[in-house]
Design a protein that fits this description.
By secondary structure, the chain is α/β, with parallel strands linked by helices. It is built from 4 helices and 11 strands. Strands 2, 3, 4, 5, 6, 7, 8, 9 and 10 form a 9-stranded mixed sheet that branches. The chain has a two-stranded parallel ribbon with strand order 1-11. About 20% of the residues are buried.
Length: about 280
């Protein structure tokens, strides 16, 4: 009995010292004034401390297992992200290769027919027909101008039947394309009104005449101011009033519509050689 008690006391004391050293128990728990160490109490304390130790190990094992699970989940997420990035890169490379090997998109073809919204497409330069003058001429399509303008020289005014008329010749250079006979004819037309044109060089008063005009499918009466345009590239300018609610201008194109034909002029099929488009026409 003494040996067993001595052994228990020795184990208890060693356990107490160990627990105090590791912080699992404080000296005050063992050295309190009302503490009286008996074999039974010592065994109970040893059992309690062993249980606390086992519980602490269990909680530590649970924490370690939880951390391992979280690390595993994190690793799986990283793997999934890496796979997604690889798929995105592969798709981007495939699109780039397809774009590089694909043929260039064809430019839309706009013909002389009306486009779906009911408007007629025009290029920045077109052929116009002037039946009263018996000729075709190149016309610059200018959305920045209000009125149309016709190049004329030797302009004089006179009175006929109580109305004011003008007499003129077409103002054409050697490079301008027109029916040959129209170059030599003197034209006489009534003046509808006068307009005041403001330019950088000053203000100019110009007569206005009315002429039937054709351009592709368009046929209408157009008012032209009459002035000398021989310093400019095109003998005719068509402004917004002609185009209003009728046309859609594509400035990247020229001569969408065929050239009208007149007696003494070249056939429309030969217009291609005359369709040079200079860019120096400025007003």
């Amino acid at each position: 009995m003494k040996n067993e008690l001595s052994s228990a006391l020795a184990v208890g004391m060693l356990s107490a010292v160990f627990l105090i050293a590791t912080g699992c128990a404080t000296p005050h728990e063992w050295l309190a004034p009302d503490s009286f160490v008996t074999e039974t109490r010592l065994v109970e304390e040893v059992d309690r401390l062993e249980r606390r130790w086992e519980e602490g190990e269990g909680r530590s094992a649970d924490r370690v297992a939880l951390l391992e699970q979280r690390f595993d989940a994190f690793g799986e997420a990283l793997d999934a992200m890496g796979l997604t990035l690889q798929q995105i890169e592969a798709a981007a490379r495939a699109r780039a290769e397809a774009a590089a090997s694909a043929p260039a998109p064809a430019q839309p073809v706009v013909n002389s027919e009306r486009i779906p919204d009911g408007k007629v497409p025009l290029g920045r330069v077109e052929w116009v027909g002037l039946p009263t003058l018996g000729t075709y001429l190149k016309a610059r399509i200018d959305t920045g101008a209000s009125l149309a303008s016709l190049s004329a020289t030797d302009i004089t005014t006179f009175e006929r039947d109580g109305r004011e008329w003008i007499r003129f010749r077409l103002g054409l250079t050697r490079e301008d394309v027109a029916v040959r006979d129209a170059r030599e004819i003197w034209f006489e037309l009534p003046v509808r009104r006068y307009v005041r044109i403001v330019q950088a060089s000053g203000t100019e008063r110009r007569p206005v005449i009315s002429l039937p005009t054709t351009l592709g499918p368009i046929e209408q009466q157009v008012e032209f101011t009459v002035n000398d345009r021989t310093r400019l590239t095109h003998p005719v300018l068509l402004g917004r009033r002609f185009m209003m609610d009728l046309v859609l201008v594509d400035v990247s194109r020229t001569f969408i519509h065929p050239r009208p034909e007149f007696p003494g002029g070249d056939p429309a099929a030969r217009a291609v050689r005359d369709q040079s488009d200079e860019e120096s026409d400025e007003e």
